[in-house]
Amino acid sequence: xxxxxxxxxxxxxxxxxxxxxxxxxxxxxxxxxxxxxxxxxxxxxxxxxxxxxxxxxxxxxxxxxxxxxxxxxxxxxxxxxxxxxxxxxxxxxxxxxxxxxxxxxxx
Length: 107
Known about the structure:
disordered N terminus, two-stranded antiparallel ribbon, 11% strand, 6 helices, 59% helix
């Protein structure tokens, strides 16, 4: 689960380094595609096998890109029995959008 203290300042805003990490994580076409699929899947998330089948990516390539999304704190990984599930951290994306609106688009 997302702990607001991990990604936001005391006022609940995203900090610059966290925004850069999230943007870096999305700065590759495959990672963006993976993230879009996870958002579309909703809170249930998807397994690596489901992602691989939908994207046509080999497991090792998918693993590399999932690691990038995890490092950017845009997704979480949960284990249910023997299965791993990846889910989007939607509050984190909302914080990134808020950061961009406040710091880049306000003029």
